[in-house]
Amino acid sequence: MDDDSVERMLERERLQMEQIRELDMEELQIEEVDDDHSSDDDVLISGRGDGGAGPSGGFTFNTCLASLHTYLGEVDDTHGRLSFLDGGAILNLPMFYLEGVVLFPEATLPLRVIQPRFIAAVEKALNQVDAPFTIGVVRVHRHPDDGRLRFASVGTTAEIRQYRRLDDGSLNVVTRGQQRFRLRRRWIDVEGAPCGEVQIVQEDTPLRTPKDAFAQLASVSNFRKCSFSHAALLGASPAKRRACVDIDNDWERMSAASIVSDHSATDSSDSPHRYGVDESLSGDEDFMDGWDQRRRKFHSEGFSRSDQVHKCVKFDEDDNLGWDSVEDFASGKRSGDWEIRERHRAVHEKKSVFCAPLSFWPHWVYQMYDSYALARRAADLWKQVIGSPNMDDYIRKPDLLSFYIASKLPMSESTRQELLEIDGISYRLRREIQLLKGFNLIRCKNCLTLIAKRSDMVVMSSDGPLNAYVNPHGYVHEIITVYNANGLALLGSPAKEHSWFPGYAWTITNCAVCESNMGWLFTATKRNLLPKSFWGIRSSQVTDDTQ
């Protein structure tokens, strides 16, 4: 990152800090709590939240404030920036083993470091030479049978961007994910810091359909006209017969060239041969359906025009089929309606793009592995989840898009750990497309109670609908924000201290059925702050409900 980018980032953060100070200067307007709700007893909440505004109900909260993690207080920037490590490199790093957290490259991870062993790990990271300001983050989870901790085999390096040492010796740290690695072995050093030997994963490059695998058929109109005119050319002039023969020869030469191009295309490193195509490829209904729809559309538009369509389309007098007159290819005269149909078909063919396969594999197979085509599909599905963000920058970088969607996907930590372990941009994007198409409900992991729906999600942070936050005791929670929730019970009264969202008070929520902790209800404490309330659901407490 160059100096100009750092300066712009610091300036943006200063402006956002000023907005926070202005927000704090506003007169507090804490919502009144009913007497029945003021006790420490659980309050069952069912149906819609208490005045929570959805996307259509207005939005005045600045989502950039949540991504700054201002609840950590003042932190200092670490100006040393580490360049990316080479793929396959093996090195030793101080490790953070976090339960309920999956860190991806480019994702932000805040830490409240209290335990002496992890304080020693941060100190080691700040002073090490090989990879300064870098720690390793690995997800751990408890096995459902014996309750013992299990360590994931794939983690992510995290660069310490900001930190501050407090008077009690604890540390507030803000890190950012960098590169995936495989955990080879782990140990505790003499200072008590957890360490591990890691190997950086060599990421692949985005795949693109080879340019020489398909070609645009500029002469397709002439080919089709020639094909249907052979029978009609019996009454045509010798000059026109020779013209049609010349066109046939052109197509024969194109076919011969396609045989040569076939070898170069299929031998390309970007072709499906690189990975092999198994039986699942022929059953990919998503791509085949799109291919069949385009083919059916072509045939329906090219051969069976309705009279209503013909009346709506206007043609210029210069539009023709490439022949001087009707008698050039058939004897007799055509009706006016039939001539309009032919003119319409000719105009359509001029504006259409026809792709001729010059390789063994059809076009839809290449689309299954084209990282840029998959990125476009994934971005379109992602917009349906979180609204209409600008995804153009991510689409041009499919590798970053695959990590971004995986880190923000509102699903369980186990599913996102699965995405982190997938090698290959195209494979990861295909899996994300499958999950986005099937994702609909958020349920409690323990009792399967319905908590929220996909349509209930609300983005309260500029980083996305799922983000990691840390509480004063050092526990990191990844939460999904929704404006409507069901089957949750409130525990206690709202608290304003250490709120992850400036201007909101938080209240603990449990599942009303199994009483497991599900997250928090956030209620506005500032005037004119919308939404008035929303929910933060812990991703570690939900199960995937895909269809």
Key words describing this protein structure:
alpha+beta; 5-stranded mixed beta barrel; Methane Monooxygenase Hydroxylase, Chain G, domain 1; single chain; 20 strands; 7-stranded antiparallel beta sheet; Archaeosine Trna-guanine Transglycosylase, Chain: A, domain 4; 24% strand; Metal Binding Protein, Guanine Nucleotide Exchange Factor, Chain A; 547 residues
Regions with little confidence, pLDDT below 50 for 5+ residues: 23-56, 219-234, 247-285, 301-335
Strand content: 15-25%
Helix/strand class: alpha+beta
Q: What is the overall shape?
A: globular
Q: Please tally the β strands and state the result.
A: 20
CATH class of the domain at 70-200: Mainly Beta
Helix content: 25-40%
What do the pLDDT scores average to? 75
CATH architecture of the domain at 70-200: Roll
State the oligomer: single chain
Keywords: Cytoplasm, Metal-binding, Nucleus, Ubl conjugation pathway, Zinc
Protein name: Protein cereblon
Family: Belongs to the CRBN family.
Domain Lon N-terminal: 93-440
What does this structure look like?
Among the domains are: 70-200, Archaeosine Trna-guanine Transglycosylase, Chain: A, domain 4 (Roll), CATH 2.30.130; 204-209 and 370-439, Methane Monooxygenase Hydroxylase, Chain G, domain 1 (Up-down Bundle), CATH 1.20.58; 441-546, Metal Binding Protein, Guanine Nucleotide Exchange Factor, Chain A, CATH 2.170.150. With 547 residues, the protein is of the alpha+beta class. The chain is globular and about 85 Å long. It has helices spanning 3-24, 116-127, 220-229, 238-266, 279-282, 285-303, 307-312, 336-351, 363-369, 371-386, 392-395, 398-408, 413-421, 425-438; strands at 43-45, 76-77, 90-99, 108-113, 134-142, 149-151, 154-165, 171-188, 194-200, 214-216, 355-357, 439-444, 450-453, 466-470, 476-482, 488-495, 504-511, 517-524, 533-538, 542-546. The longest helix has 29 residues, at 238-266. A 7-stranded antiparallel β-sheet has the order 1-16-17-18-19-15-14, with no helix packed on it. Helix 10 (371-386) runs parallel beside helix 12, helix 10 runs parallel beside helix 14 and helix 12 packs parallel to helix 14. The protein has 14 helices and 20 strands. A hairpin with an 8-residue loop joins strand 18 (517-524) and strand 19. Likely a component of a DCX (DDB1-CUL4-X-box) protein ligase complex. May interact with pic/DDB1. It comes from Elaeis guineensis var. tenera (Oil palm). Residues 439-546 form the CULT domain. Residues 93-440 form the Lon N-terminal domain. Belongs to the CRBN family.
